[in-house]
Structures are given as structure tokens and as C-alpha cells.
User: Fold VWFA domain-containing protein from Rhizoclosmatium globosum.
Amino acid sequence: MHAKWAATLKATPSMCTSHTVLVVDQSGSMRTSDVTDYRHRRTEAKPRSHGNYQQALDLCDEILAVDEGNGACAILLLFLSDGKPSDQIPFLNSHEEIFGSQVRQLSEKFKNQLTVGTIGFAGEGTDFKVLEHMAKQASAGGSVGLFQKSQASSVALSSAVSLLGSKLSQTQTRLTALANTRLTGRGTLRVLETEGIK
Assistant:
């Protein structure tokens, strides 16, 4: 049955009402042993590669291209990291500047369809400026941007992911209601009625 639905969505992407992309930082720093109820961050986050934010954000842009033109699709980009990107960047730029710009471009493309959730997954005293800036740039670009610090706890991580799932559901409900209003024309009728009242 899964293959049938996957083929249907691939053939008709406009049927998709939500799309979630999860990016997990895979850098060596995720091996730190500071998660309260796991051996280390990697056990909880299950890393497989390096923590290159720029490549990850480029890939997100490619993946989300299928949603362009589908204004009824709620999109969640969830970015889980300890806040230490592995990217080598040009001398005069900062990580915040480069990755914030990439997130803002995505946000400007998808506007209120997109929720960008950045989750800082590390112990106390960790610098999460890059993740915080990415969330701020999502908001500045017209999307919902949320930064959450999970305090290196699987319980806090679960809560952060649940909150983002709720935001995705809210966006999906709003977009579905807007699409239904457009289809029935009810919204337009109400606007015309109220414009005639003095």
C-alpha cells in the first residue's frame, strides 16, 4: 500500500498536505557524552556523516523544490545540532551570516507555508548563536522560525520535536482552510459583503 501512495504523491505532488525534512548534525562533536539519559549525543541523534550545515541546507532546498507551487502544503524544516558546524567558510563571513542567508532564502520562497525549527542539543554553556540566527532569519523571511534548547536531554528533545510537530499541524490546518475557502469562494463573498457596509 505504501508503494501505491508514494507513486501517487510522486505523480501528483499537489496532493501532499505536509512535508517534513529533518537535518541531524553528524559532526564529531555530537559524540560528546553529556546527554542525561544516553551514552552520548550521537546515540540519541544517530549521526552518520559530518556536520556541514551549508551542504545540508543546499540539499533541503533541492528536496523542498517539489513543494514549490503547492501552496496548500505545510513544510517543516527541523534542524538538530549541537551548534558547532564543521563547514569551512570564507574569511570575511560568519557561520551565522552564511547559514542565516540560506534559511532566509528558503523562507522567502515558501513564506507562511514553512516552519523552521532549530534545536540546540548540548549541555549548559554551549553557544547556539548560529541556530538562533537561523530561526530569526526564517521569521524575517516570512516563515515561522523557532529556536529551542533541549539541554542535552532526550525528554527535552522529545518536547521540542513535539512542539514543532504541533506547529506543522497548525500550519497544515490553516493552509487547508485557506484552500477550502478559495475553492468555495466563501472568503471572497464575505469580503464583498463587508466592503459594501458603511
